[in-house]
Each structure stands twice: as structure tokens, then as C-alpha cells.
Design goal:
It is a single-pass membrane protein. The chain has 72 residues and is an all-alpha fold. It contains three helices and no strands.
Length: 72
């Protein structure tokens, strides 16, 4: 019994360097996405930012007092 010759079909995928969009969805409408995430999670954002702002303010005040302490 002879086998029938079946042509091999192959699919070749190629990407043009001019058509590639790397992470296009990430940058699309970014300000609105950030606003939406913060408005959904404003309590978590507050709990994250409050200690950071407090520590930064404390450090700035402490450094300023150190600068002025040698004057008196």
C-alpha cells in the first residue's frame, strides 16, 4: 500500500519592527487609570502616604534644627 503524499503546511509568524506596540495598553489613558485606582482605594492610599509625608516633614524639621543649633 502506498502512502499518499500530503503537502506540509506551515504557518510563519513575523513581526514587523514598525508595527510592534510594546505595552501599548499600559500607557493608554494613564491619568484616568491612576485617578480611578486612587478613588477606589483612597483609604489605603491615605494610610500609605500619611506616614511617608510625616517622616519626610520630621526629617526636614530635624535637619533645620541641627543647622540652627550651633548659632546659640
Amino acid at each position: 500500500m502506498a502512502k499518499a503524499s500530503v503537502p506540509v503546511k506551515s504557518v510563519v509568524y513575523a513581526l514587523s519592527p514598525f508595527q510592534q506596540k510594546i505595552m501599548a495598553g499600559l500607557w493608554k489613558d494613564l491619568p484616568n487609570k491612576i485617578h480611578h485606582k486612587i478613588s477606589e482605594n483612597w483609604i489605603s492610599a491615605t494610610l500609605l502616604l500619611t506616614p511617608l509625608v510625616g517622616v519626610y516633614t520630621y526629617v526636614q524639621t530635624y535637619q533645620e534644627k541641627e543647622k540652627l543649633s550651633h548659632r546659640y
